[in-house]
């Protein structure tokens, strides 16, 4: 789990894919956090991505850095605890202008049934399940 977190954190930007009806939706994200042994991302409840995740929690992330890429597939589950939201926002203080752990909009979601595959053109793919 730490290796996945470190790769996403170092990459800075990753792309999150969701589904809306029969249409794939992909957008850049940049938040990632480890809290209580779980891998989290963050968004706002008012955003279409939140609705898409709640309708179909299966998502995939792709990140690229230094000739290697990570594909992370799994399901996202919401964590409504203030502690989880605060932990995320403390890791990204620049978001505090838009989000607060008590605002009713901040949403943190953690991966379940995750499969991470590290790949490059120079090495065989390596998979981690969690």
Structure description:
- The chain is an alpha+beta fold and 130 residues long.
- Helix content is 22%, strand content 48%.
- The protein contains 3 helices and 8 strands; from the N terminus they run H-E-E-E-E-H-E-E-H-E-E.
- The protein has helices at residues 2-11, 48-55, 82-91; strands at 14-20, 23-29, 33-35, 38-44, 58-65, 68-79, 106-120, 126-129.
- A hairpin with a 2-residue loop joins strand 3 and strand 4 (38-44).
- The termini are close together.
Task: Chart the SSEs and their pairings.
Blueprint: H1 2-11, E1 14-20, E2 23-29, E3 33-35, E4 38-44, H2 48-55, E5 58-65, E6 68-79, H3 82-91, E7 106-120, E8 126-129
Antiparallel strand pairs: 1-2, 1-5, 3-4, 4-7, 5-6, 6-7, 7-8
Query: Could you report the average pLDDT, rounded to the nearest whole number?
Result: 98
Unreliable stretches (pLDDT < 50, length at least 5) are: none
Shape: globular
CATH structural architecture: Roll
List the main descriptive attributes of the protein structure presented here.
130 residues, alpha+beta, Pnp Oxidase, Chain A, eight-stranded antiparallel β-sheet, 3 helices, 48% strand
Summarize the structure.
The protein is an alpha+beta fold and 130 residues long. It is 22% helix and 48% strand.
